[in-house]
Amino acid sequence: MMEITSRANDAVKTAVKLRESAAFRRERGQFLLEGARLCRDAAQSGIAVQTLYCTLTAQEKYAEYLAPLRACAADCVRVSEAVSAALSDTSSPQGIFCLCALPDTNRARWKPGGIYLALNNVQEPDNQGGILRSCEALGGAGVLLGGGCDLYHPKALRAAMGAGFRLPVTVTADLPALLRESDFPTFAAVPDSDARDIRTVDFSGGAVLVMGNEGNGVSPAVLDACTERITVPMAGNAESLNVAAAAAILLWEALR
Amino acid sequence: MMEITSRANDAVKTAVKLRESAAFRRERGQFLLEGARLCRDAAQSGIAVQTLYCTLTAQEKYAEYLAPLRACAADCVRVSEAVSAALSDTSSPQGIFCLCALPDTNRARWKPGGIYLALNNVQEPDNQGGILRSCEALGGAGVLLGGGCDLYHPKALRAAMGAGFRLPVTVTADLPALLRESDFPTFAAVPDSDARDIRTVDFSGGAVLVMGNEGNGVSPAVLDACTERITVPMAGNAESLNVAAAAAILLWEALR
Question: What is this model's ipTM?
């Protein structure tokens, strides 16, 4: 098998840029995924794997993950340890990477009684990924992503543990319009004590839970499109919960 | 005022090492804190601020935060922008740092009906800090920290947003012994579907909620010291919640 040994190789440079730049990912319609488990999960979730890159060491160590991956990947290329280190976002890479096609950005469907999450400019990749992971684990029906959210940042991909491949996700440039056309009540999560206590809300008919930016909360335009402001009542001196913790509690309360 | 302009200055080198090394923090009994808000919160929470370092720019920009800080700090030293960049853990530092004494590590007290969190080798600083933030926001009575947890890592300090200074925290090398001597039921959070559903637990008499390591969960020795294993019931294909999300849901359920 041919092996890429140079970091100056064009395919390597493209892959590194896909890892680093959201704009480049959108331009190319591709993203770079790292790690045996995540790559296998993506392939098994129907993500189109265009090229599988792996080291000789990984080929032996992660054989069980690679078998289903090889069956899906259009192309398999061996890379040296040095190239693996260049492709990786971590300090101890497993040596497995997939160049994938960005999936369809309009996969969420309104289901009766479904609980949906909408992310309005949630900024931190760890938070975005963590929220998707909670949404899947707790049984959310789908995710609506407004501008400023990027699920294909390496950290967001890691934190989501594949939830973004399995959950129905819709990406929109106009979140207020999408919220207005939903048949469900749309609740903006805010850290304000005068907003409605989530324990008094009836979520049984379905709902959209809207989470805002870490620093600035839900934007005025999105707030304006929501049915109501709701809040997790707090004790103590803390001003607010982290957005991923608040999302977990809201999902739990709506789905428990 | 004298200004430190060299990164080779001994005080700067010590501060950088305190930021980087948990072992050095323990050895010196000190930690380095960064940011106007966090430094002020620490001082107002009774943390002993030994030296305040700030840039001329910060002195003007964050005057309202600095006033209470200067009143508490034993010593105030001006630093250049280059030194600020060396001290900082972020890409755009505010230019305010405090060298603080590590607080007493035995502050948690058993209160009737209190809900306590115990961290058993939770590894990621973001998770540790996020869990402390949730604990304070939701009204937890205190935190028990087993080995492997380090609240004074710069990322943990940022994620906790000062909760670690205000919450009663006890650090222990023997978490199983501390759990055994508690008067409360001690619940190990596990991702196993055969563990007890948290919706069926009566938390009203107080409880200790034990969160485990991101990869390996609660250790066998700690599990053995717990009254019962409990779990957040899950849907979908996800194997588990992130530990900070699980802690938020558990705290919420126990305190709602």
Answer: 0.94
